[in-house]
Each structure stands twice: as C-alpha cells, then as structure tokens.
Write a structure and sequence with these properties.
Shape of chain A: elongated
Radius of gyration of chain B: 27 Å
Shape of chain B: globular
Helix content of chain B: 25-40%
Oligomer: heterodimer
Largest interface: A-B, 45 and 48 residues
Number of strands of chain A: 0
Strand order of the largest sheet of chain B: 5-1-6-15-7
Number of helices of chain A: 12
Number of helices of chain B: 11
CATH class of the domain at 225-427 in chain A: Mainly Alpha
Structural class of chain A: mainly alpha
Helix content of chain A: over 70%
Structural class of chain B: alpha/beta
Distance between the termini of chain A: 37 Å
CATH topology of the domain at 225-427 in chain A: Four Helix Bundle (Hemerythrin (Met), subunit A)
Largest sheet of chain A: none
C-alpha cells in the first residue's frame, strides 16, 4: 500500500516536472535523441543487411553460379569426349580418354565447390544427387572403352548408356541448379539495391521532431536559432541524402550486372551448353543411332544461332563482341558441315561422318570446339564484367552503415547539446 | 597423487561423454542407372489384327518372294530394272546393325564392318557393280539404322505415309535394303509393305546366362529371375507368353546387345533371343554359358526390301540362289558361326540349321 502511494507520488512529481518548461525541454531533448538514435540503428541494420546480401552475391552466389555453369559444361564435354574416344583411331584415343578424365575431375571439383558454398541450402540436394551419379557414370564409360578396345561391340552400349545418363539426368539437374542460382543471385542483387522506404519515413519523423523542437525553443526562449538542433537536422539530412544516393548508385551497378548476366551471359551460356549437347549428339548418332537424333541436332544448331543472334545487338563493340561474332562465324561453318551429316536422303558413310564430327588430326579443333572456345571467352569476359558491376554495387555501400550510425549519433548529441543550455538555465 | 589420478580420469570420462558425436548418417541407396528404353515387364510389339486370321497371314505372307528368273536383262545379259539402274547410277545404300557380332558389327579397331551379313552384302554389290567392285568402294554405303525403326528406311507407300504423319520419322535414312537379322514376320509385311528375299539364315532361340554352379539350361530353371530380350521382337513376345508357365520375369531394352550389358552389370540373369545373336554376345563375355534351345523360338532372317522394287528383290534372290548353289553362303555361315566361335575357345555348337527350300510367288 505504501509502495503504491510512493509510485503515485513519483508519477505526480514527474508529471508536474514535465508541465514545467525545463521538463518540456528535457522531454524534447530525450525524444529528439531517441528518434535520431533509432534512425541510426535502423539505417545501420538496413544497410548492413544489404551489404551482407551483396557480399553473398559477390562471394557465394557468384561462385555457385559459376560452379553450376562449370558442372554443366564439364559433364557435357565429358559426354562428347567419351564418345569421340572410340570414334578416332586407337593412337589418338588415349589423348581423348585423358581429356575425359580431366573433364570429370573438373566436374567433381565444381560439385565440391557448389556443395561447400551451399551446404544445407536449396541446391544441396541437387548437388548431392549429381555427385551420387559420378561413380556409375565413370564406370560405364571406362567399361565401354575397355570393351571397345577388346573389339567388343557391347562397349557401345555402355557408352550409349553413359551418354543417356548424362543427357537425361545429369545435364538437366545441372541446368536447373544454374537457373536456381541465377534466380537467387538476381533476387539478392535486386533486394540489396532497392530503396529503404521505412528508413526514409523514420528520417522524416526525426526531421519533424527536430523542427517541432526548434519551434518550441524559439517560442519559449525567443532565440530564433538553436545551433544544436540545426546541426542535428543537418546531420540527419546528410544521412538521409547519403543513403538513397548510395542505394541509387548500387542499384545502377546491380542493374548493369543483372542485365549483363541475363541478356548476355545467360544466353551465351545456354548457347554453349546446347553446343556441347549437339557435339555429343553428332558422335552418338554414329555409335548408337536412335530416332530423333537428327531432329535434336538440327534444333540444337538452330537454337545456338538464335541465342547468339539475340545477344549480338545488346553487346557493345569491342573484343568481347568480336568473340561473339567469331562464335557466330564458327557456327555457320558447323551448320554447313553438318548439313551433310543430317541429309538422310543421301546418307554419309561412317568414315565420312567420323571425319566431320571428331577432332581433326594434328591437334586441330572441330567446328563445335571452335564455337565453344569463342563462346567460353565471351562468357568469361562478360561474367567478369557482371561480377565487377556487382562489386561496384557493394563498393557504393562501403562505410555507409557505420557512417550512417555515426551521423545519427552525432545528430542525437547535437540535439541534446543544443537544448542543454536552455534546460540548464532553469537550474542556475 | 591418487586423488589427482582419479580427478584426471573423471575429467577424461566427462570429456569423452560430452564429445560431439557428429550428424547422423542419412540412409541412402546408390541410384540405379538403367538404360534408355528399359521396360519391366518387357514391352511387346502391338499385335497386328490382320496377322491373326488365315486370310491375313496369306495376304501378308513374309515367305512370299519373287523369282529371279523373271528379272529383265539387257543385250549383254546384265540384269536391268528401274531400281537397279538407279543404284548403279547413285550407289547402293544398305541398312545394317553394328552391334551384332558374327552377323554384322563394326570392328572397333579397323572401323570396318564385318560378319555373315556383310559377306552377303559384298556379294550383292560385287554382282551389281561388276568385277571392279572391292571393299571400301564408295558405291556401297552402309548405314547404321536407328534402333526400332530400321524397316521405316525402305521406300514404300506405307512408310511414306508414316513419315508424313510423323515428321520425326523423316530423319530415318532412306536405304535400298536392310540386312540386320530381320526375322520374317507377317506383322512387318503388313506394317511396312516390305518384301523379303529368300531366307539367308534359319535360327532357333537360345539362352545366355552367367556361368555358375546353379543349373540354368531352360527358362523353367530361371523362375523368379529377370530374363532380357529386345523390345518389340518375337523374342520378347515368346518370353511374355511363357511367363505364366515358367515364372520368369521378362524385361526388355531397345537392342538385344544391351541385354549383355545388363547381364554383365548383374541387372538381369539371362538373355533370350536368336541363337546366332547369342553366339555373338558370348564371344564378348567368356564368363557366360550358352544354351541352344532347338525347336523353340527363332525363325528365318531375310533381306528386307520395298515391295515397290521388284527388280531389286529378284536380283537379290538371284544372288542368294547362286550363293546357295556355289556353297559360298554355307562357307560364310561356317566361317562366322563355327570357325570364329571355335577360335574364341567356346563350345562349338551343333550343325547350323538348314535353310528352307525357296518357293517363289511367280
């Protein structure tokens, strides 16, 4: 009972204090400082989250996307090489077998990279499923080669099954893994560079509080200018201008990165993947022909042409664009050469087809390999450029979180410092 | 001192109890990788109603072929006809299999095709193009046929209609004849308008199993076990018909050579198909046992051609007749199915089945 009476007395005393002018000044100072500190805290958190998103985009997502591309490419390469190794003469075969093993080695490396970057994430199951298939895939190919070396035609069945496994399961999963990562990367970049409307609103509230404080001070003390409150408002304004400016710059860079990735890198990567698929289609048609091979090859070549055609107009003149144009030229030669392979009314003999689809002697490259080489160079350059744009977006936010917080701490201190002399006057 | 030792022991015990045990290992099974087109139970060809009746079997009789004696000849005695003239001008295109050792396979070392059917093809080409023809001559083109669609490669009215109805089929290469152990069946005559030559091979079924202590010399010995055959063939039809009486589990794949892969990978226990095909499979895996099922399954194989090319059919029948007469057909058969098998150290089978007498439709 006595405690309640004491609490009631304190409340009454505090109310009486707030009704007095010094009490009102103290309340205003506390509110201004609290709002400024809250804005600092919110701004720091918002910017910190966005920096983390961009860091994730630069480091983890970028690496995952690149790993997913590598997984597709290396398995598709391995598929084409595993078949070429039995089409070429016995002396050239070991070189292609070694290339296959290197492709699988690189594929496993890329899988390991993807697994370490997304342990327990959405892609982890997919990566694990792909990894589970590698031993059987390699075993099928090695058994196929071994049987073929012993002149046993069952070798072609092993190789055909390995190819079916790659094309029917592994490449599909790798493609979906890449799509998943691209989506996640784009979402992260868009989220990181979008405007922080709630922070701006809180900033406006802080400015309003400071404005009202200034008006109250001017009326009660007849001092027209309170330097502390003006400084606090100035610091808040600096923070509120810096934040959207930095986000605008980051947004521009992120947009550049997204556009380059979606309009250039993604179609070129798809063209390269389709090219690898067409390359192995050609070889498989000789080893284990099935209905639909020619149509698939024709569609693949048309698709590569369409993708390169879409990309060319959106690229700036320069060495990267030259690479894209070189890929288009190599593709034209490839289509010419394969027109003979696909002509069912006048089918080529086995040796004639082998000569077209396997690497020429003397270390030369097939048309498919030339297209792949040019596309790979263009993809690397545009990926680097896209990653640099993401890094620029991240750089635009450098120091913003800490700077924003310090500005608002300073604003809070300035507001209190500006009002303190007025409060102190009543205690002299 | 003792107290310290006890304390240390207790500390170690506690540390051991609290040591992290790691995440529990998730139970997973290794993925099972099966070939494209694997069907369990096996996939049978769609039955042809016309071949279920006596009239239909007569109308689409696969043994009905054309007499070579009626083939037109020029003044010099050389056979002539529109298809033969076209072939002499543009070359002969023959559809073959490259995965059936002894019958027709590609030598992985030389890249050349070889086998009993290749001997027949070379003899046809030699007689067609004259003595100047030699292996490797560009006038003869051997085309490996897509599995399951080899007879669509012949230029016939029904095949043309099928190609128009399904644009996918347009990619099946066009050939003048198919020699790929094509068994003479009423259904194929009905579906593709093919006409066969006189038979060049008579077969029965066989059984290829892994060698071991257990007796597996008949389908009845394989009760509860998987037996493989190529899909849409007479062999898988046999297996499916025999399933209730033998208890076997028929499975099918697009090509009988894939059955060997499944047998080697332990995914099936036996392969059931034509005996000569199994001989070729056994050559590739000496760890298998081949059982000759005389009197069961099999049939006759002939050269499949378009019924719209009667001059070619008569010409091929003439070549086969001469090969029978001069003993070269039997010699070739013995070379591949006896000598090659003996050279590989496998059991030499009984004498090959005789070819049936030929009766021509005209």
């Amino acid at each position: 009972m006595r405690v309640l009476e004491e609490v009631a007395l304190i409340r009454e005393g505090f109310g009486a204090y707030l009704r007095r002018t010094e009490g009102k000044f103290t309340l205003i100072a506390a509110c201004a400082a609290a709002f400024a500190l809250a804005l600092g805290l919110v701004g720091m958190t918002v910017v910190g989250d966005r920096q983390a998103l961009l860091d994730d985009a630069v480091d983890r997502r970028g690496a995952l996307t690149s790993a997913a591309l590598d997984i597709y490419r290396t398995f598709a390469d391995a598929d084409a090489t595993s078949l070429d190794a039995v089409l070429v003469d016995q002396q050239r075969s070991p070189g292609l077998q070694q290339k296959f093993r290197e492709d699988v080695f690189d594929a496993v490396d890329a899988l390991r990279e993807a697994a370490s970057r997304d342990a327990g994430g959405s892609s982890a199951d997919r990566v694990r499923r792909l990894t589970d298939l590698v031993p059987q895939y390699v075993q099928l190919v090695e058994t196929g080669w071994s049987a073929s070396r012993n002149n046993h035609s069952v070798g072609t069945n092993y190789l055909a099954q390995a190819s079916f496994l790659v094309r029917g399961t592994i490449l599909k999963d790798a493609d979906e893994l890449h799509d998943e990562q691209i989506r996640a990367l784009t979402e992260a970049q868009e989220a990181a560079s979008s405007h922080a409307w709630s922070t701006y609103l809180l900033g406006v509230v802080v400015l309003v509080v400071l404005g009202m404080a200034h008006r109250f001070t001017a009326r009660r003390t007849r001092r027209r200018v309170n330097v502390g409150l003006l400084a606090a408002a100035g610091l808040t304004l600096v923070a509120l201008v810096w934040l959207p400016t930095a986000l605008l710059v980051a947004s521009g860079s992120a947009e550049d990165s997204i556009v380059q990735r979606e309009k250039v890198v993604a179609p070129l990567a798809e063209a390269r993947n389709v090219g690898r698929s067409a390359d192995s289609n050609e070889a498989r048609m000789l080893i284990y022909p099935t209905l639909g091979d020619v149509e698939a090859l024709r569609n693949d070549l048309a698709r590569i042409g369409a993708l390169i055609g879409d990309v060319t107009p959106v690229t700036e003149p320069g060495p990267e664009r030259d690479r894209v144009e070189q890929a288009a030229a190599a593709l034209a030669s490839w289509v010419d050469a394969d027109a003979r392979v696909m002509d069912t009314s006048n089918p080529l003999t086995y040796p004639q087809t082998v000569a077209i689809v396997t690497p020429p002697t003397g270390g030369g490259k097939t048309h498919a390999e030339q297209v792949d080489e040019h596309l790979t160079a263009a993809i690397s350059a545009y990926t680097r450029s896209s990653a640099e744009a993401t890094a620029s977006a991240r750089a635009a936010l450098d120091g913003l979180a800490v700077g924003f917080a310090l500005l608002m701490v300073a604003a809070a201190a300035a507001a209190v410092a500006g009002l303190w002399p007025r409060i102190a006057e009543y205690y002299r | 001192m003792r107290a310290r030792a006890v304390t240390a022991a207790l500390a170690l015990l506690l540390a051991g109890c609290s040591a992290p045990t790691g995440a529990p290992q998730e139970e997973r099974a290794a993925p099972l990788v099966l070939p494209y087109g694997y069907a369990d139970p096996g996939s049978e060809a769609t039955p042809i109603e016309a071949c279920e009746t006596a009239e239909g079997r007569l109308e689409f009789d696969p043994r009905r072929t054309l007499n070579p004696a009626a083939l037109g000849r020029d003044a010099a005695g050389a056979p002539v006809g529109p298809t033969l003239d076209e072939i002499r001008r543009d070359g002969l295109v023959v559809g073959v299999s490259q995965t059936t050792p002894l019958l027709s396979r590609r030598n992985q070392v030389t890249g050349e095709m070889e086998g009993y059917e290749l001997d027949i093809i070379h003899r046809i080409a030699t007689e067609l193009f004259g003595p100047g023809f030699a292996p490797g001559d560009p006038r003869l083109r051997l085309v490996t046929m897509p599995t399951g669609s080899r007879l669509l490669a012949l230029r016939t009215g029904k095949n043309d209609a099928a190609r128009k109805a399904d644009p996918k089929l347009a990619e099946v290469p066009e050939v003048h004849m198919v020699l790929a152990d094509v068994t003479l069946t009423c259904g194929r005559v009905y579906t593709h308008d093919v006409m066969y030559s006189a038979p060049y091979l008579t077969t029965n079924a066989g059984l290829l199993t892994r060698t071991g202590a257990e007796r597996r010399s008949s389908l009845a010995d394989l009760s509860g076990r998987k037996v493989c055959a190529a899909s849409a063939t007479t062999s898988i039809a046999d297996l499916l018909a025999l399933r209730p009486s033998t208890g076997i589990l028929p499975v099918s794949v697009p090509d009988s050579s894939e059955c060997l892969m499944l047998l080697q990978r332990g995914l099936v226990d036996a392969i059931y198909t034509d005996f000569p095909i199994l001989q070729g499979l056994q050559l590739q895996d000496p760890g298998t046992t081949l059982v000759d099922l005389r009197g069961q399954g099999g049939g006759q194989a002939g050269v499949a051609m378009s019924k719209d090319h009667p001059d070619l059919i008569r010409f091929v029948n003439g070549v086969l007749e001469r090969m029978r007469a001069d003993g070269s057909l039997a010699a070739s058969r013995d070379r591949w199915f006896v000598d090659e098998v003996r050279a590989a150290g496998l059991d030499v089978p009984g004498p090959p089945l005789d070819l049936p007498p030929v009766t021509y439709a005209d």
